[in-house]
Amino acid sequence: MGTDEDWREQRRLAIEAHDRAQRDRKAREAEQAAALIARFVADAEARGIAPEALTAPAHRGNVRYRTGLRGWYLDRRRSVAVGTDGLFYLLTTSNSVRSRLSGVRPEPGPAPLVVGEGGRDGDSIPLRDLLRRRLDGS
User: Fold this and answer.
1) DSSP track, 48-71
2) Which of 4, 10, 49, 122 could serve as 44's disulfide partner, Cβ 3.0–4.6 Å?
């Protein structure tokens, strides 16, 4: 193999190793976040913090859509929530007439260990702190 081929092969292997490490890290974080959420749901139920019907805010305007979900909002905008099913939901959705009539069904996603990471300064908060705040009624 020539120098160019060696370099390409080494680069390909390095990229694959990096991708694998990133997937493993995300999987570990998702497991940790799922454990935090499971604990939150148990604590909320034990403290008698009642779940409520969750609605999803539209990206624009002051419109909220029914979701058919029940759970606990975690933020003031009421766009991040944990369902009674123990799953994590980002509730923000697109504006639509159809959604106004029939509601929306947000898909659960893996919870991040830092909610809002990569957003504007001051918009991120560790999931652990967000859940604790909700349990404490803040």
Assistant:
1) T---EEEEEEBSSSS-EEEEEEEE
2) 49
Q: Which two tokens stand for residue 23?
A: 């997937």
Amino acid symbol at 75: D
Over residues 79-131, the pLDDT tens digits come to 999 999 999 999 988 888 887 888 899 999 999 999 987 666 667 899 999 99
User: Whole-prediction pTM value?
Assistant: 0.82
Q: DSSP letter at 109?
A: B
Burial class (CB within 10 angstroms; exposed 0-12, middle 13-18, buried 19+) of 116 = middle
Instruction: Give buried/exposed letters for 74-110 (b at 16+ CB in 10 A, else e).
Output: bbeebbbbbbeeebbbbbebeeeeebeeeebebeeee
For the chain, the structural domain boundaries read 3-136
